[in-house]
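re: that complex we talked abt at group meeting.

here r the seqs, copy pasted straight from the sheet so there may be weird spacing, ignore it
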Amino acid sequence: MKNLIFICILVISNCLYSQKDKLTVSGNWSKTFSASDISDAGNDYPNSFISSTNQSLITVSPGGNSTNYININVLVHREDIAWDNGLNLKIKRSTIGNGSISGGLTFQTINTTDSNLFSCTGNHTNVPLQYEITGISVLLPVPVEPYSTTVVFTLMN
Amino acid sequence: MKQLIYIICCFCAISSYAQNDVGSINMTFTLSQVAMLDLEPDNLPLTLKIAAPNDAGEKALIVAANNNKWINFSSAVFPGNSRSISIQMELGQKVPPGIYLKLNTAKYSGLGKGELGSATSVVTLNDTPQTIVSNIKGAYTGNGDDNGYKLTYELEIYDYKLLDFDQSATLSITLTLSDL
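got the structure back, here u go
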């Protein structure tokens, strides 16, 4: 009987906490750089290019429901497909949001290893993300295939 | 057996609780070839003149005021490609008899970066293209005076008996930055 009770407790506990943390993100960023981006002959491209303020939208649901107030972290890293070390890709949250979300309000470099983007509790829907790319230059070889990378977000509690 | 069941149940609970989710988006940046060129401080006409000497028996005076221009350019190329700058007078145009119009292209100077190429020292202008800077790859010269390649136009008398002091010519000169 004891065993049965114990197993039931474990099963109930499992049911309560087994709702998977959910993260969805949408909004790729594609940009073509051309002579029209250069102000005058003799100049290089501008130092940086910035995406729209809501280039990507990320939704996080810790434990899959809004009543789960476990503090969670959203991590970010990039996985390069074709990249140049002179390029520097940055990200930030573009709105302050309510009090249950913090961090990520200034541009930070997206590295090839995870770093914390922001922390929050509860559900947050369509958090806007903005990107900055620096290092675009006429000195870079013009690639046959575009420079590309995948930005990966991980929800971690 | 009981212990095994406990362990399995615990593992299920822990593993479910520890699940994290992952999402991703793609970034794509396309760079185009760039070939931009202009002249500084402007592309207004230059005036070169031959004047009478101060004393009989002396050479004619070649008067050249503000006979300098600077080439500014920005260039982005595919790997392995390079560009050159050529110069020519408009097809059919000729310098008045007895004189050459020469162009001296100085070495690069300025605040630019990259593979800026190298200059051909002096060319005598005519209506066929002549390369004055070659082997330009990904580079920018810097913008404005004192950046890029300084051009100096000069007249040279090669045959006095052909000179006609009443003669003048307006010449249109074209510079082209192009792939080799």
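couple things i noticed - Chain B touches chain A through 50 residues (CB under 8 Å). The mean pLDDT of chain B is 89.
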